[in-house]
Design a protein that fits this description.
- The complex is a heterodimer of chains A (306) and B (251).
- By secondary structure, chain A is of the alpha/beta class.
- Chain A contains 11 helices and 14 strands.
- In chain A, the strands form 3 sheets. A 6-stranded mixed beta sheet of chain A has the order 6-7-8-3-9-10, with helices on both faces. In chain A, strands 2-1-4-5 form a 4-stranded antiparallel beta sheet, with helices on one face. Chain A has a 4-stranded antiparallel beta sheet with strand order 12-13-11-14, with helices on both faces.
- Chain B has one domain (2-248).
- Chain B has helices spanning 2-8, 10-29, 31-39, 42-46, 49-60, 62-97, 99-104, 110-143, 149-177, 180-194, 215-218, 225-248.
- The chains are: A alpha/beta (306), B mainly alpha (251).
Chain lengths: 306, 251
């Protein structure tokens, strides 16, 4: 794969009737990345994934997947993408060999050995119908089948939803250890932040169909901090507004004499700027954020990603 | 994909084949019983003259009886229900079970998906109809009323084309409504509405369902070229309408 971007989304707009589900979304998924796509339920994650796969028409913008236009070259896209949907979308009345035969008949390049290997690794029974499988087994089978078409890009929509922690851990371990090691790009949506943090190297967060932030996870954690300011006296409203308008302040919350700032970029310089202001500070704390903290900060009303 | 469709429709295929074949054989087999019980019956004599004549005509020949009871009445009714059941679930059940995402995420065109599903159902219908016609022919031969095999074969073909209209309608509604029940009802109501001209004096030619069966054809006396063309066009209309609709449909 010569592409530097596995997915390029530009100003994507998708409407459900009068409701705008995705509103001007733009971000890029680098080739070879494990990309976590985060957002609350109903934030537009699944709609975006459906648009990538050509299952929903675009009301604006464009999507390129592995160099192909997702609308006009949807077939090429689907030939190179393995997809595991959020709902159990396997045929309950088929056995694994029957499902494999079906997938083989509709795939351009089918590697039965890969599927057999994963089926063995996951310990899935091959003689019973899928309807008798547990949720975890169905997810494992869906992943095995998605890999059977030898995809360059794997799109997983809430792949571990409904799984117990052990099954989730197993699933993610396989995902990272085997799939990402082969250099495939993995794009997965989730709202279980700990699992995203454990496996993803890139993340994008969306809220109400718009992008809040998209960045490399390590870079995000290095550059996004919370500054906790404790003033000697209650800061006047004008001072709070002045803080809010400082460069690199993304959101602000006040509780009495305490002010909490979500910051981006050079936090030292920002601290010095704030300390130089006329209102006396009793204490300044810089707090590192994990993904969950970041996500919660971005989900707060008034925070704006840059 | 064909095998997957056959496995999915296996219970409909088995139930349809058993019920419809059995009904066609039983209907044919009851001819003698019905004839004997009505010929000496005093209640038959009490019927109005027109009705009396119709019953006499019906029971006067096995051919008239078999055609009117199977190809013109019970057969189309049962087969239309089966065609509607088969067609209504083709897309709608994939949507309701969520399997549509698995299916449409594969590198196959939506046209191919739709046409393979339709073709498998059409072949299931044809198989069941051939079986039921064979059952009728065998029963008739056993009873000593051998029927014209060519006439039965062409009548079966004509009725199959008629049923493809119902199948196509069910498929169209299945794409449109994404709901099995509404698709099923729609596919059964439209042919009923289209049969209304058959009850109006002078409007018989506009009764689409009237072209599904033709007595001279059953007797092997004529080839129903006009009826075949009408039924073929009618069968193609909902199918052709379903293809662009499915292509544009968002899931």
């Amino acid at each position: 794969m010569a592409e530097t971007a596995a997915i390029e989304i530009t100003n994507l707009v998708v409407n459900y009737g009068k409701h705008r589900a995705v509103d001007g979304l733009s971000f890029t998924v680098p080739a070879g990345a494990i990309f976590g796509f985060l957002g609350k339920n109903g934030s537009g994650k699944t709609t975006t994934i459906k648009a990538i796969l050509g299952l929903r028409k675009l009301d604006g913008g464009s999507i390129r997947v592995l160099g192909y236009d997702a609308v006009t070259q949807s077939m090429e896209v689907r030939a190179r993408v393995g997809y595991v949907s959020e709902v159990n979308s396997l045929y309950d009345y088929l056995t694994i060999p029957q499902l494999c035969a079906f997938c083989r008949s509709v795939s351009r390049q089918w590697n039965q050995q890969v599927v057999d290997r994963y089926v063995r690794v996951f310990g899935l029974p091959t003689t019973t119908t899928v309807g008798r499988f547990s949720k975890g087994m169905k997810s494992q089978l869906a992943l095995s089948l998605a890999l059977g078409s030898n995809p360059d890009l794997l799109i997983l929509d809430e792949p571990t939803a409904g799984l117990d922690p052990v099954a989730r851990h197993d699933f993610l371990n396989k995902l990272v250890a085997e799939i990402a090691a082969e250099g495939k790009t993995v794009f997965f949506s989730s709202h279980i932040l700990s699992e995203v943090e454990a496996v993803a190297d890139w993340v994008a967060i969306i809220r109400d169909g718009t992008l809040v932030i998209a960045d490399e996870l390590d870079h995000l954690k290095q550059t996004q901090k919370v500054l906790k300011l404790t003033y000697a006296e209650l800061p006047p409203p004008a001072e709070v507004e002045a803080l809010r308008s400082l460069p690199n302040v993304m959101s602000l919350a006040q509780e009495g004499r305490s002010v909490r700032l979500l910051t981006q970029g050079d936090v030292e310089a920002l601290t010095q700027t704030i300390q130089a202001r006329p209102h006396a500070l009793r204490d300044v704390d810089t707090v590192d954020l994990n993904l969950e903290d970041l996500f919660l900060e971005y989900m707060k009303e008034g925070s704006n990603g840059r | 994909m064909v095998v997957k469709e056959l496995i999915e429709a296996r219970w409909k295929l088995i139930a349809g084949a058993v019920v419809i074949t059995l009904v066609s054989a039983v209907l044919a087999g009851f001819y003698d019983v019905l004839k004997q019980s009505l010929s000496g019956s005093s209640s038959l004599q009490q019927l109005p003259q027109t009705l009396h004549n119709q019953v006499q005509q019906l029971l006067g020949s096995f051919g008239v009886y078999a055609w009117s009871q199977w190809f013109s009445k019970t057969g189309p009714e049962l087969l239309a229900v089966l065609a509607a059941i088969l067609g209504a679930s083709l897309i709608a059940s994939e949507v309701s079970k969520g399997t549509i995402f698995f299916l449409l995420s594969k590198p196959i065109s939506r046209e191919r998906v739709l046409l393979v599903k339709y073709a498998v159902s059409a072949l299931i219908l044809l198989g069941i109809m051939v079986l039921s016609s064979a059952a009728l022919l065998v029963t008739a031969a056993i009873l000593g009323y051998p029927q014209n095999v060519y006439g039965v074969a062409v009548s079966t073909l004509l009725l199959w084309l008629g049923m493809l209209f119902v199948l196509g309608l069910a498929l169209l509604f299945s794409v449109l409504f994404k709901d099995v029940l509404r698709s099923l009802v729609g596919a059964l109501v439209i042919p009923l509405v289209l049969s209304i001209p058959g009850y109006l004096h002078g409007w018989g030619a506009w009764n689409l369902t009237g072209y599904w069966a033709d007595f001279p054809t059953y007797l092997g006396q004529s080839f129903p070229i006009k009826a075949l063309i009408i039924c073929l066009i009618a069968a193609l209309v909902p199918l052709v309408a379903a293809i662009p609709l499915f292509r544009k449909q968002a899931y």
